[in-house]
Amino acid sequence: MVLTRCAGQYYTGAGEAANAEAGRVEAAALANATDFASLSGMPGLSQNLLRRYGLQQANRHALENSLIYSRAGQKAGLGFLRVAAQLLGLSLGAALVSAGQLTAGGMIAASIILTRTVTLLDASWASWPQMRGLLHDLRGLEHAASAALPPATEIPDLSGSLRCETLIFPRGGGAPPWLDRISFALKPGECLAIVGPSGSGKSTLLEAMAGISPCPIGAVFLEESEVRSLPPATLVQHIGYLPQRATLFPGTLADNICGFDPAPEDAQIVAAAKTAGVHGLISELPDSYATDAGRDQHLLSAGQVQRVALARAIFAAPRYLFLDEPNALLDGQGERQLCDALARLKEQGTTIVMVLHRSGIMGLADKVLVLDNGRASDFGSRSEVLGRMGTGRRRIELPLRPESLQDLSDWVAAQFSRAGDEPFSQRARLIATELFSAAIADGKPKGSRRAQFEFKFLDDSRCEITLSENNPTEAEKKLKKVAACLRAPQADLSGLEPDERALALVSQISDRMEVRNVDGRSHFFAAVSHREGAPAGAVPH
Question: Alpha-carbon distance 210 to 318, whole Å?
Answer without folding.
Answer: 12
